[in-house]
Design goal:
Number of strands: 7
Structural class: alpha+beta
Number of helices: 5
Strand content: 25-35%
């Protein structure tokens, strides 16, 4: 695996990171930002969607951890994952648009792979088929497609498995 840039700092999310988390979530919602509606309505819709996502994570992944990635004092990305009974699950990963294609998501993914390897756990995730950048990243990192439906693929990685 690649060595991370020395200035990358992956740490637990703090209360004072909430504005960044909201900005990051908003940056991932081009589907809503492009709607021909009142900007105040769109802002409220995005806030409510973010709350629904957070509630869904709490309900479905009660042991989830959230980490943010800093680089030279700037927050660039966030990942949510859970570790239970021999499996780690990447729930969500997001990177600010201006920091994409700079290795930020790959670094966070490699961090989880190292953690999974240390715990002799598999690492699984679900990705939408239309998220071509994410699919390419996961496949290049050695993930295998283990199941799929019309819109998404379940992927899994295990330390020592052929890439």
């Amino acid at each position: 695996m690649d060595m991370p840039p020395p200035d990358f700092n992956l740490r637990p999310v703090h209360e004072h990171d909430q504005e960044f988390i909201a900005t990051l979530y908003r940056s991932t919602r081009d589907d809503l930002l492009g709607l021909p509606m009142d900007p105040v309505f769109i802002d409220n819709l995005i806030r409510s969607q973010q709350q629904i996502q957070a509630l869904g994570v709490q309900q479905n992944y009660p042991n989830a951890q959230t980490k943010v990635l800093e680089y030279q004092g700037r927050l660039l990305g966030r990942m949510i994952f859970e570790h239970v009974a021999g499996d780690m699950r990447l729930i969500d990963i997001a990177v600010l648009p201006g920091a994409q294609r700079q290795g930020v998501a790959r670094y966070m993914l490699q961090h989880l792979q190292q953690l999974a390897g240390a715990h002799q756990a598999s690492l699984s995730l679900c990705v939408f088929k239309n998220n071509l950048k994410a699919r390419k990243l996961y496949l290049s990192a050695g993930f295998q497609i283990v199941d799929e439906d019309e819109i998404s693929e379940q992927m899994c990685w295990r330390a020592g498995a052929a890439a």
